Amino acid sequence: MRSQCAVYVDAGYLLAASATRITGTSLLGSIEADHERLVEALIAHATKHSGLPLLRVHWYDAARHKVPDPRQEKIGLLPHVKLRLGRIGFDGEQKGVDLRIGLDLVAHARKAAVDAIYLVSGDDDLTEAVEEAQAHGVRVTVLAVPNRDDKPHGVSRHLQSAADGLDLISSAVIDSTILPRSARPKPVPQAPASRPPVPSPAVFAARPPAAVPAARPVSPAARAQNGGRSDVRLVCSSSTDADTTVAPGLWADEEMAERIDQVVNKVLRAWWDGDDAGRGSELAASRPSIPKEVDRALLLDMSDALGIDDLADSVRFRLRARFWEQVDAGGPGGPG
């Protein structure tokens, strides 16, 4: 059997990480992607660095009821691309995408379908699948999106350690195939009066920070679970009164408030810049819930800002409360 390589793309990681590089937030609605050129670049990288011909590109994404939307259908029709869909749950989160990637990695390795795999993902949950594929003689390279410092964005240390190598997608490729939506002309609303009125912009930082439960040192048992680090502190959740890890060397309340402000400002500015026609109506219709796309970006960006995977309930609460405070204040980037 002829040796071949294949590319496995976690679309959620690829696009969210690229959006963060381009716009400063993972909000997918803040970017537009030239998927055809992006796929061509991934193929070129895999074939050049492996020295092997391509079997195919496996593109993993999620869709409501596993029915592809027009954008996904277009991607699935690209040459050499196999579209693999998980589903979107009732909570708006994708389900089954990581499982599909892991199952395909192992199945293709066992069948000796490929000799080299390029995995575009950073998810820690794929570590065991990578190790299983390697056990069948397949070389697995993680292909990461570069951040603004041209370092790998959001790649789990476990995944990086398990892989045979870590490559970066060319920054020139990301910058030329992923563009901010704010760069395109904005549509002119046909009925401006239909948008719910928003108060004039105000200085968000001037608003007093929301209260947060006091931080206290981690217990010896919990410290042992965190590698014996003494600078790890916990925040007590006001809703459950349970300890939840926030971040090593927990931020002072003022610094936490500042980071929350930075995340909210970037996401909200990207939200308005993407296409402000109907944005106010969408927010009004969803309230008190934050639109799923925006909420996902807020949580992911906050996790990145703190360098952790799971946010404490108290941080989530403050983050979402700040979002609505900023919306009510008419900024940043919102209509005056």
UniProtKB/TrEMBL annotation:
Pfam families: NYN. Coiled coil: none annotated. It comes from the Bacteria. Residues 180-200 are annotated as: Disordered. Signal peptide: none annotated. InterPro entries: LabA, NYN. Residues 186-200 have a biased composition (Pro residues). Residues 6-164 form the NYN domain. Gene3D superfamilies: 5'-nuclease. PANTHER family: SLR0650 PROTEIN, SLR0755 PROTEIN. This is NYN domain-containing protein. The lineage of its organism: Bacteria, Bacillati, Actinomycetota, Actinomycetes, Pseudonocardiales.
